[in-house]
Amino acid sequence: MSLQSLLRQTYRFGKVVADTSLTSLRTGLVGTGLLASGFALVSLAPASAQDAEVANDQEIAQPEATEAVKSTATIPVSSSGVTTRKLAPGVMHFIKPDLRPEDTFEGPAALEFVAAHPELAWQAPDFPDGRPFEAPKSDTLVEKGSNVVLRHPVYGFEIGFKPVRMIEVDIPQPSGKLQRKLIWYMLFSLRYEGGDLQPKAEVDQFGASTFPKPERVSFNSRRIFPSFVLIEKPTNKEYLDRIIPAAKEAIARREKVGAPIYDTLELQTLPVPKSTETDDKPIWGIATWENVDPRIDYFSVQVQGLTNAYRVEKVDGKELYRRKTLQLNFWRPGDTLDEIADKIRFGVPAMADPARQIKILQTYGLSERLDYLWIYR
Questions:
Q1: N or C: which end of the chain has fewer CB within 10 A?
Q2: Statement: the pTM of the whole predicted model exceeds 0.70
């Protein structure tokens, strides 16, 4: 039998099978097998030059189709041979570190020791001009100590997080018994991508050191000392992060990230390795709070330790060191009944009524809708 006759019969038989809706499963499988055999015979037939050109074009176009699939796939979570759970886009929110050149210096300001000892000045009558005889006044200790600029490098971590959730956990009590409690928690990941800002001195034509622009430097790893505080709005009641081992185990079973999860105390003992485009090395952690007021509708989570940037402010004659802090805003449309069923949303709610929108912004202490912001605290 010729190849054309075999293909013609195979086509007719396949058409009959396709048109007969009440054919048994066995008949369908036979028809499918014959169709597959026919296509296999076609593949054995010699291809023409035109067919070869079409096949080559398809092979060239295939990588582009693959790239398109990658662009719409879930976020990459492979890191150093450890494959974590794949999360769909939008499940986690990621915030890059906010590193600025002005964070690398503090001042100019007067040193307290110099300001407290005016006798260090070069005064008359021994020094009529208020300076040494053979040196400028700017070289004296008093002048140098009254105009000091303190410089330091600044680093930062990227944080990814899921909105705050709740879970019921049996917590061991001092009496030895278990008490079922509702725990609020936030799952997060930390990444160090390098790019720290470090002051770089340049010598001008007069031999003086200037610092026009900091340079970017990176290290193999960085340490982090995180702190998470949940703040109720508008009362500003604070709930500090608690270390609850029983809750950490329950949360790990629930979230299934496929990697170790650490509490904020354990994170302080671990170096966060540098992540690159080809080798992602996140560290996963949780912040937990207990005894949170069930009537909360609006709250913020302030995160410290993501950067070492700080500012010094004088309040009532005292110097206060304020750390750069990331504030995440949340809201919870719910009530005191069945709290665990209430879904907590990230950001500030949008209202159609302008008056109500202004009231909500005042609750957060904001002048505009901001899902997150950097503050000094």
A1: N
A2: yes
